[in-house]
Amino acid sequence: MNDFEAYFKETIEELKTKELFRDQDLIFKRQSNNELINFSSNDYLGLAFNNPSIDIIISNNKQSAGTGSRLISGTSEAHRELEETLAKWKGTEAAIVFNNGYAANIGALSSIVSSKDAVFVDEYAHSCIWDGLKLSSCRKYIFKHNDTQNLNDLLEKHRSKHQKSLIIAESVFSMDGDSPELSKLVQLAEEYNSNIYIDEAHSTGIEASTGAGFVKRLYEEKKIQDFSRIIQMGTLSKAVAAEGGYICGSKNLIEFLQNKARTYIYSTAMSPIIAKLANENIKMIQNSDHLKKELNFNIGLFRNFLVENLNNKNNFKNFNGPIFTFFFGDSEKTLKVSNFLIDQGFICTAIRPPTVKEPRLRICINSKHQKKDIENLAKQLCYLLNKEIQDPS
To answer: Do 270 and 263 touch, CB atoms closer than 8 A?
Structure first.
């Protein structure tokens, strides 16, 4: 066995010993089992399956591939239409589309800040944000999760040392489901001459009157009056049920990224079919209020059952959105609970380090879940948590 094979094997065995190994074949087998109800999907509005737009889009589009990077031969009318739709939806001057959210964060963050600049980033920010910052030579200051006082202290101490300043957070944090006090972030950005970079991956499609996201919802509620300092990043692969990532902001920002973001410049453009699908799904979200109403009804149904039947309300977290987190202890116990729920007919994947510090079940409610399935899952979770079962098998 050569050195690399020995290293691969040793690492795999170590992951298995620590209950941190991800078995992709097993995950696929579970997800392809139509008898199991998936409560780990981020398809919040249920548009990923049986979408009537797909057949029409495919039959009406003759170009399946991007054929080149966006700056060479890859930009089609579908890409331009999608970017125009996104900018109008988000209330910004312009938008740029990347092949996925990871590429959007990597490309944007590695290019808009430099060694002369400072970034003040929430400690719970997504991995692709951290990876983007690694590729930048900026100075990073990490503030405690959603702690605006800690952020203020860091800005007061360090902002003046740097040229540009960027505050980074997520509008809905993917592993906890909570949100920052955005109005306070805007206030701090004004006070310390900073911009805000906010990841809207888990609020796009389900927040605001048209599903435009968390930033737009707070603007509609008059909790923020101006979001010109906010760079809005998001994905098209969750509630929008397509593929791709985007940045929305000023025309200057977008033209800058078109010329500086390496993941945009050096990647073949996304398929025009996917761009068209994303565009049609956004329009459907904008004009189909029942999708968000169904989602909110299901969220309320699940939460109310838990609140009424759990002995200890601290065993789960929810912040009125579709993401619920449940804590059972270490990775081994959490995996056992996940496997127990599989036997009951539910996919509830265990989230373990290094993705999160504290192992948990992260359960996502969507608009297509049936009342009986939501209540049945809630009953199983209450049973496990109320009995404090250490080994549900």
So the answer is: no
